[in-house]
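Listing S7. Sequence submitted for prediction.
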Amino acid sequence: MDIVKNAWEVKDDRHALLALAGNHTAEEFASNRQLRAKDVADWCAIGPLKRGFEIGSGEGTVARLISPQCQSLDCNDISQSFLDMAKNNCAACANVRFHLIGAEYLSHLASASYDFGYSLNVFIHFNPYDIINYLQEVRRLLKPGGRFYFDACTLGDQTMPLFCEQARDYRITPQQVRGYLNFNDPAVICRIALEAGLEVSDKSQFSNSGWLGILVTRAAPAVGLR
């Protein structure tokens, strides 16, 4: 677990921007966060009475944008340095709480307590073992009918150059593999979601670009005949 955590501890704002946005500028990253927050609010049907959770709070921008739209938001990250940045960014958001992810994943959060959850630029780094462990936690946390949105990546027209770049980097620093992207086949991700007890929504986006947007739900119980 220390190896995983150390891959995401940052030393300063420059290092944080590199970890979060790669080669993009701070302005490009901020604009992207605005758009992604709107996507999350739409896909997860966020409303003022709904409770949510975030996996991978980063520097807290999305949480700050989402928090006025919901009742409460629990933000979770494996990096203490990013959590500290997020707390500062969300200092005025009274309905946001922050939690450090440990060896037991999201066990600190109560089961069946959340209407929605989301994770941005996190599952793109996960291998299939990471994905199923987190999605099993997602199912446990969601109320019946609850929604969870996450992005992922596979090999495609836009992601192939990035894959080749990171393959070259891996030759030099293979010990940094936890910070590289994982290019998972969409069919594998969907099968893992089903194995975790979640339903994959038809709204999910699988394009030739290589960037994936996936919405899963915890099925509501069937209504019996009377």
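Caption to Listing S7: primary sequence and predicted structure tokens for the chain studied. The chain has one domain: 2-217. The beta strands are 51-55, 72-77, 96-100, 114-119, 142-153, 199-200, 205-206, 211-217.
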